[in-house]
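ok, trying the design again with the full structure, not the truncated one.
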């Protein structure tokens, strides 16, 4: 199986449940991809595009993407520490949706795709807490400007939904789809 991602986190999530994958970088320009008006459908379509951009032959290709939806706005990754600080201040005390699209492909065809959503409520953060967190560097590469699997867990008051959706790979949806596709290594 191939994982259309260079994310060590997604690979580790799969490895932790006994699924070995080879990581292959997808060829989709995420910044240029138009999610459209329906963020859920857009993130699903983006995951499909990533899966189809990898030439896996007859091997299964897994792809995923995640955005943060807050107060009617879609957030991707922050460009720099100042933007991360501003976003964390904005998210402080609020509840955000992590919208995670996923897709399975084989032989250049989508077998199955979907969307999983988890909500994350950020605790009230003061400027010092935000500065200390941004100094960790964990915000880099994260659509929510924090990593739940690291120090960023301290910023969270509550999570509703699949823990793995928060991490960027919704196993509750993906594992049954992998079984239906006949993926090796599943019990």
């Amino acid at each position: 199986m191939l994982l259309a991602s260079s994310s060590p986190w997604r690979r580790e999530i799969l490895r932790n449940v006994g699924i070995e994958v080879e990581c292959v970088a997808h060829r989709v320009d995420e910044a240029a991809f138009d999610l459209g008006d329906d963020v859920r459908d857009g993130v699903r379509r983006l995951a499909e595009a990533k899966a189809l951009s990898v030439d896996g032959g007859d091997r299964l290709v897994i792809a995923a993407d995640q955005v943060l939806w807050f107060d009617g706005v879609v957030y991707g990754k922050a460009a720099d520490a100042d933007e991360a600080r501003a976003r964390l201040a904005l998210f402080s005390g609020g509840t955000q949706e992590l919208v995670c699209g996923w897709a399975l492909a084989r032989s250049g065809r989508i077998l199955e795709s979907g969307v999983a959503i988890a909500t994350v409520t950020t605790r009230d953060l003061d400027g010092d807490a935000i500065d200390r967190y941004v100094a960790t560097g964990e915000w880099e590469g994260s659509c929510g400007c924090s990593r739940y699997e690291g120090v960023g867990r301290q910023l969270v008051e509550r999570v509703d939904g699949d823990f793995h959706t928060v991490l960027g790979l919704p196993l509750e949806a993906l594992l049954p789809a992998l079984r239906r596709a006949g993926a090796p290594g599943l019990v």
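Keeping the full-length input from now on. The beta strands are 2-3, 22-23, 61-70, 73-75, 95-106, 109-122, 156-160.
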